[in-house]
Amino acid sequence: MLLASKPTSAGGGEQRHGRNSGFHSAESGRDSRQGQHPPAGVSSVLYIMEHKQTINFGAGPAKLPPSVLLQAQNELLNYSGTGISVLEMSHRSSDFNKIINKTESLLRELLNIPDNYKVLFLQGGGSGQFSSVPLNLIGLKEDRCADYLVTGTWSAKAAKEAEKYGKVNVVHPKLDSYTKIPDPSSWTLNPSASYVYYCSNETVHGVEYNFTPETNGVVLVSDMSSNFLSRPVDVSKFGLIFAGAQKNVGCAGVTVVIVREDLLGHALKECPIVLDYKVQAEMNSLYNTPPCFSIYIMSLVLEWIKNNGGSAAMEMLNKQKSSMIYDIINASNGFYVCPVDTACRSRMNVPFRVGKKEGNEALEKEFLDGASKRGMISLKGHRSVGGIRASLYNAVTLEDTKALAEYMKEFVKEHQ
């Protein structure tokens, strides 16, 4: 279990608790005990974790850092001395303006976003961007066509949606199953395409790109919803990046769009105004009422990532966590089976079957029941593929992962 570090009082040194001492609070200089009711002399972070034994391996919405939850709780009724909650704060107030500007500033710092990119905070989730991307970008060139890499459920949905607005070219031979990324030598890219689209991590099937596709000058668009800020990324290689917050950088309700300025102003005439990137950029994401509380939570998570070493540190931890689970799968003599090609196995979502390649449903149910009794939830695979799926996003700790790893070892010993 994560025993998150306790936010310190002003001027005090940092106090770490428990085994997982590498995780700092979302905001230093704040006494997290305000508004809490643990027994006298007991840290509120320790108190909350001792009374919350659940480990959430959900694919999204996903686990949030406990220090972030505590800070949000502390500030819920009275944000920063305003006397009101962020939940009731006007999105046009100076107080919320500070929140959204801080969130953008943290993103720019963590990702080293160049000045010629706009950062938007929108609604509609990643699925909303399946429509927004073609509505804004497919008209960049006269042919009104786009290239799509389809390597899983989410890129397939995006490609299907884009067909409403122009011609879609799937650049590689159709895959029999979503277990690999086609070799770039097999791709047929269209130089007249307005953009090339791919999903950098497919949560359902556990397929992740470990490289950035080369597009020969065509605008590159990436859905990074499930590995956003889990590793460093060179934003300058992309025309547009989008990511739902509820996996690695916050709670459900807000989607980040990072778009190069020269791509604004090309929306199709049928593009709804709330989906028009140019309109939202000109209005600082305030054309309509934004998801204020979700943006606030994102700012806390981004600060937590910053205080814990940024995306490079997240990458190191995510490699350790995923390797821990894949090593057990690989050493199980076929008892656990991950169907994904080793070259593109996701660090974020580890899918596997139990008992045999196709899965033994009785064993998988027993595995899930046993995990639940041990306080581990949301390990059931996506309904379209079945089996087991462990999602190891940024807030899932090494200790959380070790708990799952130990259980997997015990389970295979009992049944092999």
Automatic annotation (TrEMBL):
Top-level division of the source organism's lineage: Eukaryota
Disordered, as annotated region: 1-40
Needed cofactors: pyridoxal 5'-phosphate
Pathway: Amino-acid biosynthesis; L-serine biosynthesis; L-serine from 3-phospho-D-glycerate: step 2/3
Keyword terms of this UniProt record: Amino-acid biosynthesis, Aminotransferase, Pyridoxal phosphate, Serine biosynthesis, Transferase
Keyword Disulfide bond on entry: no
Catalytic activity, EC: 2.6.1.52
Gene Ontology terms, MF aspect: O-phospho-L-serine:2-oxoglutarate aminotransferase activity; pyridoxal phosphate binding
PROSITE patterns in the cross-refs: AA_TRANSFER_CLASS_5 (PS00595)
Name of protein: Phosphoserine aminotransferase
Organismal lineage: Eukaryota, Metazoa, Chordata, Craniata, Vertebrata
